Amino acid sequence: MRKYIFFIFVWMLIISCENSIKSDLEKFQIGKYLYSAFDTSGHELANGRIELNFDNGNSLKGIWNLSPTKTLYENHPHVGIGNLIGSFNNDTIWVNLHPGWADHNVILKGVYENGQINGSWEYISFVGWTDGGDFEAEYVENED
Questions:
Q1: What confidence tens digit (pLDDT) does each residue in 58-86 have?
Q2: Which residues pair with 138 in a beta bridge?
Q3: Alpha carbons 106 and 56: distance in angstroms, whole number
Q4: pLDDT score recorded for residue 69
């Protein structure tokens, strides 16, 4: 009898965890976001669009297309076009704009709330942490 109670308990625990993950994922809006990145002084260094879609479970994939706001930032790792990967869990989002690179990563860590993502970014190069700042992204409905 104890064995059956244990299995029922484990089954209920699994179901409740799946429902929790599903409810988190259901409130996240997939699609296009208007994105702005700021340096440590609060000056905008890049803006454009990122597109986020679910890949598998709470994993994300997508594309990004960002332009510099000043010529000073033309060669910044935030600038360009590329694919991204990431994850979403408990209102927290994590995105890597340069997947597949070991020493050239722009990592976004933010909190999602009502169609907006606010957080910080950091550039990790071959010497480690190199640059960072804040970012904001706002969901754009029916944007082409």
A1: 889 999 999 999 888 888 888 999 999 99
A2: 34, 116
A3: 22
A4: 94
DSSP 23-53: HHHHHS--EEEEEEEE-TTS-EEEEEEEEEE
- The number of residues in the chain equals 144
Which amino acid, one-letter code, is at 3?
K
Domains of the chain and CATH, by start: 29-139 (2.40.128.120)
Largest CA-CA distance found in the chain, in angstroms, rounded: 72
Amino acid sitting at position 55: D
Positions in the chain short of pLDDT 50: 3-13, 16, 18-23
- What element of type H or E holds 143? none
CA dist., res. 93 & res. 89, Å (int): 7
Q: Are 99 and 83 in contact (CB under 8 A)?
A: yes
pTM, full prediction: 0.78
